[in-house]
Amino acid sequence: MVMSGYFPYYKNSCIAGRTKCLLCFHHAGGNASVFLPLRRFDNEGFVTVAAELPGHGRRVREAPITDLDLLIEQLAEETAELFSGCELYLYGHSFGSIIAFELCRKLEKDGISPAALIVTGRNAPDETEPSPFRLEQGDEALAAEMKRYGFIPDELLSDRDFMSCYLPMVKADYMMIESYSFTQGSLISAPIYFSYGSEDPDLRCETADRWGLMTTGVFRKEVRSGGHFFVFEKGNTFFEDLIRNITGIKADF
Fold first, then answer.
1. In this structure, is the dihedral angle defined by the CA atoms of residues 133, 135, 138 and 140, taken in order, positive or negative?
2. CATH: 1.10.10.10, 3.40.50.1820, 3.90.1010.10, 2.40.50.100. Which one for 12-247?
3. Which residues, including other chains, have CB under 8 Å from residue 217's CB and lie 6 or more apart?
4. Distance of CA 25 to the CA centre of its chain
5. Domain extents for the chain?
6. Are the C-beta atoms of residues 243 and 38 closer than 8 Å to each other?
7. How far apart are the first and last CA of the chain?
8. N vs C: which end of the chain shows fewer Cβ within 10 Å?
């Protein structure tokens, strides 16, 4: 019986009978709610499901997790139980890309084959984290790092009450980011589709191809207008295009 509760927005009845599932993993400091607007695309054969990490969103009262290996173990167990028989697509943004990639490796090792891995806003797992920020630099440096990416409004970054609640969660995620080390071994067989924003401060065209070295399957990449969080920027059609591809409205996948 699965006890970790990584999908608190969903009951088994929401997933049962769906033939295709898009499983989403948020960025560091994010939560599952950023993907809830995608539920408007759900239909009788397709569902979007967003994972919620301990200490985030609906699980804010829980202690944040700082052990990436444990996180992947728990996610793999719950994913195998909830999505059995579903054509599974894994999506991650930024830090979520590493979670999705490592989960894909774990699932394939356990005999489950995701249909595809879709990643955005993050260098390949075998590359050094490009940001110069490290947790040892302190809270002010962390706030500056978040401002650099431009997702959280300045008024919130300067709000002490907000930051006192927000920082423990962000720090837990950064602990996993800083401790992560790609382990050489089996590549995934799932195709990888990688996208990044043209104004992302940490990504360059010449490094994008390294994601292709993580799979024995198909690799495709694209650059879209926008910054690190281009997928959430107004007017960006990334998710609409992605879901149309998955559900067969277009045949690019």
1. positive
2. 3.40.50.1820
3. 188, 189, 190, 191, 192
4. 3
5. 12-247
6. yes
7. 34
8. N
Q: Which residues contact 19 (CB under 8 A, 6 or more apart)?
A: 45, 46, 86, 87
Which residue in this structure is represented by tokens 């024995």?
Answer: 216
Dist. CA 129–CA 180, nearest whole Å? 9
Q: Which amino acid is at 28?
A: A
Element (H, E) at 206: helix 205-208
* C-alpha separations of 51 from 14, 35, 81 in Å: 14, 9, 14
Residue type, position 198, single letter: S
pTM beyond 0.70:
yes
- CA-closest candidate to residue 18, choices 39, 41, 42: 42
Under DSSP, is residue 131 helix (H, G, I), strand (E, B) or coil? coil
Q: pLDDT (tens digit, 0 to 9) for every residue of the chain, 253 residues total?
A: 343 489 887 665 566 667 899 999 999 999 999 998 998 998 888 999 999 999 999 998 999 999 999 999 999 999 998 888 889 999 999 999 999 999 999 999 999 999 999 999 999 999 987 788 899 999 989 988 888 888 788 888 888 898 888 889 999 999 999 999 998 888 999 999 999 999 998 887 777 899 999 999 999 999 999 999 999 998 899 999 999 999 874 435 4
